[in-house]
Amino acid sequence: SVFPLHLSFGQSYKMADLTTSILAAAKERGITDADALVSFAVGFVQGVQNESESKPAAAAAGSKQEPVGADAELNHVALSGGKPPLDILLFRDENLTEKVRESQRRRFPVEALEDCPGSTEEEKKAAQDAQREKQKEKVALVDKVVALDISWREERFKYDAIKKEKGKLSKQIGQHMKKKEVEEAKKLKAKVAELAADLKAQEASATETEAKRDAFLCQIGNLCPEDRGMVWTSIEEKSPVYKEFGTENRLNDPAAPLEKCLNHIDLFHRLNARDCNPSEAGGAAEGTKVAGGRAYFLRGVGCYLNQALINYALHFLEKRGFTAMHCPFFIRQSMMGLAAQLEDFDEQLYKVTGEGEDKYLIATSEQALCCFHADARIEPKDLPIKYAGYSSCFRKEVGSHGRDTLGIFRVHQFEKVEQFCVTAPDKSWEMMEEMIGNSMEFYESLNIPYKVINIVSGELNNAAAQKFDLEAWFPASQCYRELVSCSNCLDYQSRRLQTKMAGKKGEFVHMLNSTLSATERALCCIVENNQTPEGVKVPAPLVP
To answer: Using alpha carbons only, what angle is made at residue 200 by residues 198 and 204, rounded to the nearest 5 degrees?
Structure first.
């Protein structure tokens, strides 16, 4: 086959070299209060700026900087960088601001007493009070942004007034000098020098206020849409079902249970498809000896099945207009701050140190593909852009301690084929339907029963305005488990990355992401649903 060469989309890219954040350092110091965290962050950022001014050559070379500022003994790590992810105009109109507050209330709901955790009424009330306090804290972020934005505009007004006065006097100095009125010029020069000092101080004050404002703003989540069928709760079991497939023919359905149904752990052992002795089902895996907990080797048919699933997923998306992209496995620290949330640095991301700037292993190709478009200006005619991102992914799984420790369902390293799309602002909801539709069609082609749920507001991450999860049927445990997450992030990510449409209006593009197949997890589901007394029947699309 001949693969034609194509020119770029007419986009111009320049890598953003932005400072990201200090969350781990603050956590190490025990700083959890929001106000204290902001002050700590501002002090650190100012310290880095001072250090970079005194060592311009080192900064230009990208060399690793020593910790600076009042907490120089701490080992700082990158925090979220880039521009604020929400339009500041949302905080300058009371009607719009109230919509942001309401969105925060929906993201951090207070549940009905009967839905709160606890075995006694007293425990339930305590849990409800905790929810109420958390909601109050998250809504208060909006009011802090409003107050700080007012302060910033006042300080900018003062700055502009000083600058105007300084310019006016400088012009007068020129006029006096032309007339050889030296003494009058000297007097004005002294005033101009005072104004220059005032201007510098006022600029520093305005910059600090802006940094505090933006630090609070970055903690506020995307606005939840009111017309997309979302339920305002944190109880995931209340997520409405959007679509279903294969429910009437589920293997080992509770209404028609099998006499014997093996789980994916036993099936992989019996198939000798991974690093366990097939005669010792449930025994330890050799991968853990080599690489620690949740590590594994895929062997023989396990390796081939995984590769077949990767290839099928890439070709599946290619037929639907997606461009395959094999992504870097690690990203510069300053770039990762543009694509990841603060908690990801602690809970998901592995840090890689070495020559030059520190890096992080990617948890999903979405992170690399986001950064690929940092500072881009994209021609409207080139939209939508649709990528089939393929990479190995690496996750700490800190929040999953003790869960799914056997098998390859939840592991630290896995392969994934991801849909990542960039659209015009008025086309993202249409694209979301297309992307979740692709995922549904993909698993239907593998004859995997599933249900798609519209995730409740309290389970959304900050970037997602809405999220669909595709949960597939696992016969051995007789339950549905997540295989796909599909999110519309609107312009939340593109604002941070400063990715816009080319043209006078310069609108921010919208960005969406959706799993097609996290292959190791998907294989667990495939072998369970295709087991027979004789073995496992390989689905037709995976057969060479």
So the answer is: 115
Residue showing tokens 């599909």? 486
β-pairing verdict for 330-332 and 359-361: antiparallel
* Structure tokens belonging to residue 373: 């478009």
Kind and range of the H or E run holding 42: helix 34-54
> Which of 390, 366, 383 is closest to 428 using CA atoms?
383
Beta strands in 246-382 (DSSP E): 323-326, 330-332, 351-352, 359-361, 377-378
At which residue do the structure tokens 């404002």 appear?
Answer: 213
How far apart (Å, rounded) are the C-alpha atoms in residues 471 and 285?
27
Neighbours of 539 (CB within 10 A): 18
Structure tokens at 331: 């990203």
Half-sphere exposure of 26 (CA within 13 A, CB side): 23
pTM: 0.82
Q: How far apart are CA 414 and CA 398, in angstroms?
A: 16
**Phi and psi for 417 in degrees, rounded to 5?**
-110, 120
Reading the block at residue 320, the tokens are: 């639907």
- 544 residues of the chain, pLDDT tens digit each: 343 433 333 333 233 333 344 554 455 444 555 544 554 454 444 433 333 433 333 333 333 333 333 233 223 233 456 799 999 999 999 999 999 999 999 999 999 999 999 999 999 999 999 999 999 999 999 999 999 999 999 999 999 999 999 889 888 888 888 888 888 888 888 898 999 999 999 999 999 999 999 999 999 999 999 999 999 999 999 999 999 999 999 999 999 999 999 999 999 989 989 887 656 655 567 888 888 888 899 999 999 999 999 999 999 999 999 999 999 999 998 899 888 876 777 778 999 988 888 899 999 999 999 999 999 999 999 999 999 999 999 999 876 666 677 888 999 999 999 999 999 999 999 999 999 999 999 999 999 999 999 999 999 999 999 999 999 999 999 999 999 999 999 999 999 999 999 987 889 999 999 999 999 999 999 999 999 999 999 999 999 8
Rg (CA), the chain: 27
Q: Which amino acid, one-letter code, is at 270? A: R
* Tokens (6 digits) for 265: 């752990």
Neighbours of 437 (CB within 10 A): 15
What phi and psi values does residue 466 have, to the nearest 5 degrees?
A: -150, 150
Cα–Cα distance measured from residue 203 to residue 304, given in angstroms and rounded to the nearest whole number = 61
Residue whose structure tokens are 């305590």: 126
Closest by CA position to 328, among listed 304, 306, 297, 361: 361
From residue 410, give the alpha-carbon distance in Å to each of 56, 83, 141, 452, 467.
Answer: 45, 34, 34, 20, 21
Phi/psi at 460 (5° precision): -80, 145
**Length of the chain measured in residues:** 544
Residues 469 and 453: their CA atoms lie apart, in Å, by: 5
Residue 326 contacts residue 416 (beta carbons within 8 Å): no
